[in-house]
Amino acid sequence: MSQCLIKLQKLDPNPTEHALMCALVVFSTGRCKLINQRLVEKCQAMTADRLQLEVRRQHADSPRRFAKIMDCLVDTRGISDMFNDESQEYLANEIMREKLPIFKN
């Protein structure tokens, strides 16, 4: 996880890049069952295109910057998968649910 944070700090995304990165995370189709998956995929593609344009506009001298940003997003997905798995383990544990109020249903 710290490697991912270091990568993001080195990239130092501007506010627009940061917002578009967050939007890409939100528009992830593999996280749950969706009513209109195609619409979400279309929004994700449009957001990725906008991010790529923003990167080209702001960082014309860094041709690999967009790829580095996308790599960071892939890394963050792995971290979030790990967090979700651990949360499910805690929720399945009756003692944890009793002792830690955050895990109560």
Automatic annotation (TrEMBL):
This is NR LBD domain-containing protein. The keyword Transcription applies. Residues 1-105 form the NR LBD domain. The keyword Ribonucleoprotein does not apply. It comes from Mya arenaria (Soft-shell clam). Keywords: DNA-binding, Metal-binding, Receptor, Transcription, Transcription regulation, Zinc, Zinc-finger.
